[in-house]
Amino acid sequence: MSEVAERKNDSLRGDIFFLLAKILILAVVITLMFTVIFGFVRVNDMSMKPAVMEGDLVLYYRMQKSYNSGDLLVLKSNDTLQVRRVVATAGDTVDISEGGLRVNGNIQQESYVYTSTQPYMEGITFPLTLSEGEVFVLGDKRDSAEDSRIYGAVKESSTMGKVVSIFRRRNF
Questions:
Q1: Of 134, 132, 170, 133, whose CA–CA distance to 152 is shortest?
Q2: How far is residue 54's CA from residue 32's CA, in Å, rounded to a whole number?
Q3: Distance of CA 71 to CAs 5, 31, 80, Å?
């Protein structure tokens, strides 16, 4: 083999090795992004209808653990991941009665909720004042959602993260 052909062969091996190293680094970065920084969850219930439908794929940011009223978050309850809406944060007083949802004494007008908000027979008692680091979450489909009316206030530190994007399933 000539010296020129041998140099080309070594150059080709080096290029292939460099390409494989780039692919490996990219795979590690993507894996870390979606196991440490972001997460995906497939919604398996209709508790957030119509904002989030059954079968939708939700991307959430794991590093965000402070929430505002109206934010969507992912939490774990009974070994299942749920998407719920924050309706009250630390220091707020939540009261749910026949008159509906009240936060700090004010009736809540929620344009994304199409059913009335009623307390459940078995669940927590109202009014409830949230401590520091707690949020009160409800599903948008209030007549059948498993939410804070059953399991109470949720510690921000025990949530999975804040919803960043929703990918709507289109019949597949």
A1: 134
A2: 27
A3: 63, 26, 20
Choose among 155, 167, 162: nearest CA to 77: 155
pTM recorded for the entire structure: 0.83
**CA of residue 140 relative to chain centroid, distance:** 14
Predicted confidence (pLDDT) per residue in 72-117, tens digit: 999 998 888 999 999 999 999 999 998 899 999 999 988 888 888 9
CA-closest candidate to residue 67, choices 149, 159, 144: 159
Q: Is the separation of the CB atoms in 159 and 65 below 8 Å?
A: yes
Choose among 90, 87, 93, 56: nearest CA to 70: 87
Residues with Cβ within 8 Å of residue 104, at least 6 apart in sequence = 92, 93
Question: What 3-state class would DSSP assign to 35?
Answer: helix
Q: Taking the CB of residue 102, how many other CB atoms lie within 10 A of it? A: 18
